[in-house]
Write a structure and sequence with these properties.
By secondary structure, chain A is α+β, with helices and mostly antiparallel strands. Chain A contains three helices and twelve strands. Chain B is mainly alpha-helical. Chain B has helices at 2-20, 35-44, 47-64, 71-87, 95-120, 128-174. Classes of the chains: A alpha+beta, B mainly alpha.
Chain lengths: 277, 175
């Protein structure tokens, strides 16, 4: 009834379809595999050696062969330090008044957040996905789901852990989602990875007032990231004539191209009300 | 010892792709560097010798990447089957054929990725910059692929010659 060639073509199509379905099922049900941890543990030390060698060579160049601009840079840094010290004094004053107001309201904020510093040792081999490997793992009490931050803001969260290394899903990856707030207006939305290293703030109602330049922070409602961590600033807003949501683009504060050291929050901060004595 | 050669080559390629290429933005969209190894295995090595390496390489790449687990493994397997099938009626020493097969490999990997990601996240689509990235990958695969396959082939021959010399020297001293 069918020629041998037709049977082979149909067979290949059926096999391909089954293959894709099986892959989807495996990926949705089992996000982490044991062999995956072994492979990371085997390859990561070599990646670590290469990255450290590259950084050592780069630092050697910067520190010993590139001293011409160092004097000027030193002067600029001293100026920057003076400005930072002034800002620090201002902030200390604000913190003191904040503490007084808090005690007035019988409200005390206690943050019990322990952090661990990690070094980024490799990027994702696929250019379409945005993950990095860091040099700490289960032996340092790291586990899946822990938030990863730097001083500029949120980096991402740990999605896989081996004994000495972990894989971090960056917020700019299309599979990442962080519950967020516009700092000024408290409008809520969901930060998702977008194109060209930018993010999209989804599900923000049209009625909310948002301006370009507004800061986006984590809301803390996703149970992963503590409230108030910086995510980025609004860089574009599109309000269609129809629809209930507006299309908001966010530029992350973190420069993911130059990510070298990160902090993992081991236990999330908790905000407890102190009962009046 | 052949597996030791493949392990060294693949480890080197993976480390280069994940640590050195990201430093240069122009190389960040380079295709999967293990695809030329798979094409080489398909064209020049036996199924028996290749199958174990194919599985190991697939698992390693799936582990290091954020892609759904099994995707690299499956695309390597399909590419290997395709190369073995083409080998039956095409002249395998043709560099244009190597280019063509490697671009097909890049396409297979990206098509499978798109289908699987769309099944997992229906809103994923195929982003505009992803199309650009895949096009760059195809051009790079067509241009640099044959050179990489040639390099792997030459290195394997050098490896085998040195190994043969060491073994024959050892047996001469022993005998």
């Amino acid at each position: 009834m069918f020629s041998k060639r037709s049977v082979i073509i149909i067979g290949v199509i059926v096999l391909l379809t089954v293959n894709v379905i099986v892959l989807s099922v495996i990926a949705s049900r089992y996000p982490s595999f044991r062999p995956s941890r072994i492979a990371i543990s085997l390859v990561a030390p070599f990646q670590q050696v290469v990255v450290r060698s590259i950084r050592f060579s780069r630092d050697l160049w910067r520190h010993y062969f590139y001293l011409v601009s160092v004097s000027k840079e030193n002067e600029n840094l001293k100026n920057a330090l003076r400005i930072a010290e002034k800002k620090n004094r201002d902030k200390a004053e604000i913190a003191l008044s904040n503490a007084r107001l808090r005690s007035l309201l019988n409200f005390q904020k206690s943050i019990n957040s322990e952090v661990i510093a990690c070094e980024v040792i490799a990027n994702d081999p696929s250019s379409l996905f945005k993950t990095v490997i860091i040099d700490k793992g289960e032996s340092n009490r790291l586990k899946r789901g822990l938030p990863v931050v730097v001083s500029e803001g949120v980096v991402g969260q740990i999605i896989d852990v081996s004994h000495h290394y972990s894989k971090v899903l960056l917020v700019i990856d299309s599979n990442s989602a962080v519950d967020a707030l516009i700092q000024r207006t408290r409008a809520r939305g969901l930060i998702k990875g977008g194109i060209s290293g930018r993010c999209r703030l989804e599900y923000v109602l049209r009625k909310h007032d948002i301006d370009i330049g507004d800061t986006v922070i984590s809301s803390g409602l996703d149970g992963v990231f503590p409230k108030g961590l910086c995510l980025g600033s609004v860089s574009n807003i599109i309000k269609e004539k129809s629809g209930i949501f507006q299309d908001v683009t966010v530029s992350p504060f973190v420069d993911f191209e130059k990510l070298e050291e990160v902090l993992v929050l081991l236990n999330l901060p908790s905000h407890d009300f102190v009962t009046e004595q | 010892m052949t597996y030791a050669f493949y392990s060294c080559i693949c480890l080197g390629l993976v480390v280069i792709r994940t640590t050195i290429f990201p430093i240069f933005p122009i190389l960040d969209n380079f295709f999967d560097l293990l695809l030329p190894v798979i094409v080489y295995l398909g064209f020049f090595r036996s199924v028996r010798e290749s199958i174990l390496m194919l599985i190991i390489l697939g698992i390693v790449m799936d582990s290091l990447s954020g892609v759904p687990f099994g995707l690299h493994l499956a695309s390597y397997a399909w590419l290997f089957v395709l190369v073995k099938w083409l080998k039956q009626f095409l002249h395998i020493s043709n560099y244009f054929l190597w280019s063509f097969v490697l671009t097909l490999g890049v396409l297979i990997e990206n098509i499978m990725l798109t289908i699987v990601e769309n099944l997992l996240n229906p809103g994923w689509g195929f982003l505009a910059n992803a199309v650009e990235a895949v096009l760059i990958q195809l051009v790079l695969a067509a241009l640099t692929g044959p050179l990489m396959i040639l390099l792997i082939r030459s290195l394997h021959e050098i490896w085998n010659q040195r190994l043969y010399r060491i073994i024959s020297k050892g047996s001469d001293e022993g005998g």
